[in-house]
Amino acid sequence: FSSHVQHVKLSLCVLIILLSSWLANGVASQLTYEVTDPITGKPLQCDRCPPGTFLRASCSSIKERECAPCPQGSFTELWNYIGRCLRCGVCGRNQVVKKECTAISDCQCECKPGYFYSQDYDMCVRHSECPSGQEVLTKGTVTSENTDTVCSVCSEGSFSDISSAHQNCTQHKNCSDAGLQLVLRGSSWHDILTTCFLSDGAEYLKEIIPPFFIHHKMNIKRLRRIVHRLPSEDGRKARETRELNFSELHSRICSWVSSATAAQIQQLPDIVNKMGATGASEKLQSKLNSIQTHLTEHCQSEILSNAILS
Ligand SMILES: *[C@@H]1O[C@H](CO)[C@@H](O)[C@H](O)[C@H]1NC(C)=O
Ligand SMILES: *[C@@H]1O[C@H](CO)[C@@H](O)[C@H](O)[C@H]1NC(C)=O
Ligand SMILES: *[C@@H]1O[C@H](CO)[C@@H](O)[C@H](O)[C@H]1NC(C)=O
């Protein structure tokens, strides 16, 4: 019996020794670190420095360790014994500061407005735009959900003639509503063309040429050659287009359209065809033919009366 008691005592004793050594090496060492005392040459436990400070001077057997606050632009997050604080991070490309750096924490960054974090690129990228013919089903988000724009095709009877990250499709004009005559049926990328004032189909085509070149994406080199060959008013050759980007080419097209004569507009499908964009050329030509058909079917009387009036 007594040997049993002794055994229990012994176990308890071992447990206490284990516990205290665990405290010394485990929990306690999170707040201390070991150095060799420069005076005695023996190992010594120093206190660590608290977060927001760094170790300016180590302890010795005769003095405590000395901590100093992190200078502006640096931080320490943990109890430490490093000789200088860590430098605050810098937000990456397309990011903004979400939380400034403090002495005890590094800065936090997030994507700037209009951008979201893409795992594929490992960086913040701009929310996609929905091309013409489509609308924004859900807008892209920045912080919590971190998603890109979701697009959907314009529903029957509506259109979008621009590329946008927030705009919806617009309903086609209602002809019967306003007593208008249809000249060209609407599509997903352009509105209905109405009224019978103009006698040349090319004048109507003008309205859909700019959105046409947005909707029917073309190789930029081809588009440059097309723009270069657009017939000018006074027969001069178009200015150089070799360096132009898409938006500059589109603004060239817009200004050409606004001043072009009907005869020059008529040449466009042919120019597009000669530059090798056969499909686009056919689409333009078919729009033009369709306008012409509607004009002769629905507008004959009005054109005649306009001609008589003018
Ligand atoms: C676009 O349409 C959706 C529903 O189809 C609507 O919730 C949203 O407010 C619209 N956005 C704009 C800018 O009109
Ligand atoms: C167009 O207007 C007419 C007359 O107001 C109406 O009956 C018709 O439903 C409208 N159509 C569309 C597509 O809005
Ligand atoms: C196109 O070029 C113009 C002038 O060089 C520039 O201002 C514009 O940002 C460019 N656009 C795109 C989409 O790169």
TrEMBL record:
Disulfide bonds join C70-C85, C88-C101, C91-C109. The keyword Transferase does not apply. TNFR-Cys repeats lie at residues 69-109, 110-151. One of its GO terms (cellular component) is extracellular region. PROSITE patterns: TNFR_NGFR_2 (PS50050). Residues 1-29 form the signal peptide. One of its GO terms (biological process) is apoptotic process. Keywords: Apoptosis, Disulfide bond, Glycoprotein, Repeat, Secreted, Signal. It is found in: Secreted. It comes from the Eukaryota. Residues 69-109, 110-151 form the TNFR-Cys domain. This is TNFR-Cys domain-containing protein. It comes from Poecilia mexicana.
